Amino acid sequence: MIERGRGKREEIARSFEYRREVYMDFLKEWDTYRYKIRRDIWNLEFAGLAGGPPADYDVEHDDFFYQDLNDRLEAIELFGTHAAQFQAKNAIRSLQSWSGDDFDDIDYEPLKLFKKAVRADLRIPK
Description:
Blueprint: H1 2-46, H2 67-79, H3 82-96, H4 109-122
């Protein structure tokens, strides 16, 4: 009976670590994309192509461009809470709708709500 209790505690600890890890991976990847988008926009402007990508290019639906971030989202869908999943999707949308012009133009509210959902799930005090 004692062995069974220890196994359950270890399973809970592993689950906590998996969730913590996927949440942190998502945050790191989101930040990487923030800089990647800004860098790409800056490079276009520097090259005199300030008009940006072709008019028919739809970055919001470019699954290849966002593949690494979508992979992190998939891990959250496997291990995270529904609240964290919902807010992670919104955080990705905030990047997708960002012009890339200025970091102050990003809607950070979805990312803040994602962090709030993560703190609630992991029971981290404010």
